[in-house]
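A favour, since you know our structure tokens better than I do. Could you add the entry underneath, on a fresh line?
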Amino acid sequence: QVLTSGVAPGTLVDAYEQLVAQGYSAIISVHLSGELSGTCDAARLAAQLVDVPVVVVDSLNLAMGLGEPVLRLHHLLAREQDLEQATALAEELCASTELFFFIPTLDALKRGGRVSPALAMVGQMFQIRPVATVLDGKLHYVERPRTTAKAIERLAALAEQASAERAGELPLDVPLKDRESANLLRRQGQVVAIHYSGNEEQAREFKQTLGSIASGAVLTPLPPVLSAHAGLGALAAVIF
């Protein structure tokens, strides 16, 4: 059995109060999808217990699917100081980021209670390697290839398709102070991160397979909680 625990509101209150003590007058708190975790709810409770405005943003994503928007938002906030506009930017950056991944076995999902034992048994019998994404904050299975090679091939195809569809878009009509701010918001059509779970060499090979659309991609392990549910051998591609 795989068990994971969410963040307690008190832990978030401590984090917010540390920021207040450092002189910050407002906080934008971006978290893992509320459909997959209770962290957003904990953050909303914590937000009521501090003396500055705290805006909780549900990224509707996970891993670097929320990490990339936060990194870009950090740079944008050096120029865009209005809290309402900054919140709109945070939400748009999250909406502009896609994540696709493949799971090598359903066993870890079964142990975590994410799929039924019967479905896991069928998956094992037919050697199913699910390829999935996150839509509206929920896991959505795109295909169910029956070999690892086919799953990775499909993962690459989805990343390439998302890259081609997104390159150059500037989806949010908000006044930005300079061209550099606009460039931070503009969709690049690039794989910005590749996650792995105990299979770093396979991730390096996957990056090479993607070619130029992944030239700047960061190779990084899946966060521990996600790795616990996805299992060893998982791969993910994050596109902005």
